[in-house]
Write a structure and sequence with these properties.
With 132 residues, the protein is mainly alpha-helical. It is 48% helix and 3% strand. It contains four helices and two strands; from the N terminus they run ββαααα. A two-stranded antiparallel sheet has the order 1-2. The longest helix is centred in the middle third of the chain and has 17 residues. The radius of gyration is 16 Å and the shape is globular.
Length: 132
């Protein structure tokens, strides 16, 4: 089976070779980075996109950010990852840009309503959580 087929169980080893890693695999600075990584894997496993499509979209997203002035110091990698995921799910009609914007707004409200040191939970501000 080719590694870029939707039924592939795992991404090709070299696809994520530039991720920060330790002996156990990729490491993440923040929990959201791990979630974004896992979401890309899950969407591929569900057939939303192939690994080759994902790699092309992520590469294009990074190139666009660099052209716009991103200094490419490594600390923005997962921001690009998230932007590529958003691009993939909107171009494939999994969700809309409007729904993503509503979810971002819900996140910002929840963050503002969360006491320092506690986990941020959508809906904590008492407002309904829009579907993503």
């Amino acid at each position: 089976m080719r590694p870029d087929t939707p039924a592939a169980a795992h991404p090709p080893e070299d696809l994520f070779s530039d991720l920060p890693r330790d002996a156990d695999g990729p490491v993440f600075r923040e929990p959201w980075e791990a979630r974004a990584f896992a979401l890309a894997v899950a969407l591929n496993e569900k057939g939303v996109f192939s690994w080759s499509d994902w790699a092309a979209t992520l590469s294009a997203t990074i190139r666009e950010a660099q052209a716009a002035g991103d200094p490419d110091c490594g600390d923005s990698y997962y921001s690009h990852w998230l932007a590529a995921l958003e691009r993939m799910v909107t171009t494939r009609d999994v969700t809309s840009e409007e729904r993503l914007a509503a979810r971002r707004e819900a996140w910002h409200r929840a963050a503002a309503a969360t006491p320092h040191g506690e986990p941020i939970e959508l809906g904590r501000d008492g407002e309904p959580v829009p579907a993503a």
